[in-house]
Amino acid sequence: MSPCELAKRNGAGACGAARAHLYQNVNVIQAEKGIGMTGKKLTCLACGQLNRVPAERLGAAPKCGTCGAALMPGKAIEVDPGILAKAARHDELPLVADFWAPWCGPCKMMAPHFGKAAQALAREARLVKLNTEDHPEAGAAYNIRGIPTMVAFSGGREAKRQSGAMQEAQIVGWIRAR
Q1: Which end of the chain is less crowded, N or C, counting CB atoms within 10 A of the terminal residue's CB?
Q2: Domain locations in the chain?
Q3: What confidence category does residue 4 fall into, taking pLDDT thresholds of 50, 70 and 90?
C-alpha cells in the first residue's frame, strides 16, 4: 500500500499525503546525490533568515529564500547588532565585521579599502560594517576600544581582531591568514 493510500485510510487528506510522499522522495534523492548535506549555513544580512547554500554554488550569486537579497554580495554590507550576532553565531563561512563611526578619519580612509577587500574575498568570506555611533551597545558588547576595529568570526566565535586602518591588500592578507 502506498503512503498516499495509507494516509487516506487513516483520515489524512489526499493533498497532505501526496505532499509528504513527494518530500520523502525529494529528501531521498537529495541524500543519494549529497545535495543539501554539504551546504554552508549563511544568515541573510538583510532579513536575518538562515539559509543553506551548497558549497559549489557560493560563487553563483545565491539569494535568500525569504527576501531575495544576495547572500554573497561581494561588497561590505551595513548591519545592525542583531544581524551581526546571528551571523557570527551561525554562519559557516568566515565573517569579518568592521566597527566604525562616521566622524572617524581613519574609518573614512579605510572604508573604500574594506569594500575592495569584500570584492576580492567574495567567495571566501563575508564582510560587514557596524556603525558604533548608531549602535554604541554593540561596541560595548564586542569590547571595542578603538575604531576602526575588524573582528573576524569563525565557527560561532571570535577568531581574531585587528585595530587600526588598513589597505585592501593588508585586509585580504589578514583575513586569509587564519
Answers
A1: N
A2: 3-33, 73-176
A3: low
Identify the active-site residue in 4, 44, 64, 104.
104
Give catalytic status of residue 107 as yes or no.
yes
Q: Tell which residue, 89, 47, 105, 39, has the closest CA to residue 97.
A: 89
Q: Identify the CATH number of the domain defined by range 73-176.
A: 3.40.30.10
From 4, 44, 64, 107, the catalytic residue: 107
Q: Per the confidence metrics, is the pTM higher than 0.70?
A: yes
- When pLDDT is averaged across residues 82-86 and rounded to a whole number, the result is 97
How large is the average pLDDT for residues 93-114?
A: 97
Query: What is the mean predicted confidence (pLDDT) over 36-40?
Result: 71
**Sequence-distant (≥ 6) Cβ neighbours of residue 39 within 8 angstroms:** 52, 53, 54, 55
